[in-house]
Design brief:
It is elongated, with a radius of gyration of 23 Å. It contains 6 helices and no strands. The longest helix is centred in the N-terminal third of the chain and has 46 residues. The chain is 78% helix and 0% strand.
Length: 137
């Protein structure tokens, strides 16, 4: 009888663990589906001229905790937007290059170049960065 009780307990425990794993996978799939939908929406908005949507898209590509992680693509997008003169993209690109990110080494010269361009184009964040830098912070 003890073996039967143990087998029953072990079965329930294993079954609960299995159900928990399935629930986690379903939650992950739903989350990925939601992110897919959001990414599609951001891309469509970007195609319609919403630059902030493309910058948000690039930021999602920089999140290293999701399957969307693609820093090379994010940097290409930001470089393209920066070359077109968008100061928010210039500052973000400069900041990322200046500090480096997980799989991309810091490049202080290139980073400062883009932050200065953003400053010239009126980016408040870039102006604050340059001010702090000149003060030795």
């Amino acid at each position: 009888m003890k073996n039967g009780v143990f087998a029953s307990w072990f079965y329930r425990r294993t079954f609960r663990k299995f159900l928990k794993q399935i629930r986690e996978r379903v939650n992950e799939a739903e989350e990925l589906w939601e992110i897919d939908q959001e990414m599609d929406m951001l891309w469509k908005l970007g195609d319609n001229g919403e630059i902030s949507a493309l910058i948000a898209y690039a930021l999602v590509l920089l999140r290293d905790d999701k399957s969307w992680y693609n820093p090379d693509e994010a940097l290409k997008m930001l470089e393209s937007l920066s070359e077109d003169g968008f100061s928010s993209a210039q500052y973000l690109l400069g900041f990322l290059k200046f500090n480096g990110i997980k799989s991309v080494a810091a490049d202080k010269v290139s980073g400062l170049y883009w932050i200065r361009k953003a400053d010239e184009n009126g980016s408040q964040e870039a102006q604050e960065f340059m001010k702090m830098r000149s003060e030795g912070c």
